[in-house]
Amino acid sequence: MAVFDKKAKYYDAWYESKIGSFADKVETELAFRLFEPKNGMKVLDVGCGTGLFSIKLAGLGCKVTGIDISKQMIDIAKRKAVERNLSIDFYQMDVNELNFEEESFDAVFSMATLEFIENTQKAYNQMYKVLKKDGPLLIGSINKDSKWAKMYMSKTINQNSIFKHANFRSIKDIEDLDRKNVVTSRECLFIPPDTTLDNINMEMEKKMAITESGGFFCVLFRKPE
Ligand SMILES: C[S@@+](CC[C@H](N)C(=O)[O-])C[C@H]1O[C@@H](n2cnc3c(N)ncnc32)[C@H](O)[C@@H]1O
Hints:
This protein is of the alpha/beta class. The protein has helices at about 10, 20-35, 50-60, 70-85, 120-130, 145-155, 170-175, 200-210; strands at about 40-45, 65-70, 90, 105-110, 135-140, 180-190, 215-220. It has a single domain, classed as 3-Layer(aba) Sandwich (Rossmann fold), CATH 3.40.50.150. It is built from 8 helices and 7 strands; from the N terminus they run ααβαβαββαβααβαβ. The chain has a 7-stranded mixed beta sheet. α3 links the parallel β1 (about 40-45) and β2 (about 65-70). The mean pLDDT is about 95. The protein binds S-adenosylmethionine. S-adenosylmethionine binds near residues 4, 47 and 96.
């Protein structure tokens, strides 16, 4: 059974909390600023989970295919897409064995998933293979070098935490997957995880960016023509 199967029905609750919704906002802003989703773009969302980003990308006019190893996560994603009247193809699939034609997607997108993959190089190579030439490939990840990663690691004492299955990486670790094709890397979520409710806002985010490492980062690669 996939690690996220048992957690699927609770997964979206995080985004309903004040800090979860703030994290989602800054992570989405950063990812989309780099990725530049466009109407009609054929996008593969790897580790789509409950469809958080697949749905946002489809809402922007992208033709989205979402894959995830967890059937329970995929089932929720499918249901949410139907409720929103969005046409998205969801498949239960392992990123390590992507079952698509080579160079069949305009763009590949993956948020908060490589943390749960042991062999990130193998996963990256699979994503790269299905990407068309000149296409963007965006990886978003919790930053190993941040207070957020430390907080999640401390949760590993909790046997029920999904983060006991996580391997956090640094920006450099992800860039090293394909250094020659890195376009840019950026951080966000500078407010630390113990920020008080009153201080969860953009003003504090900007202030903390001066001294803190971002809890999340995105690396944008582009496949050469
Ligand atoms: C933290 S969730 C992120 C979900 C979504 N991208 C988001 O940002 O809300 C990580 C997802 O990666 C999926 N995952 C883990 N290992 C995978 C694999 N080998 N292949 C595909 N998906 C995988 C999990 O099932 C889970 O849904």
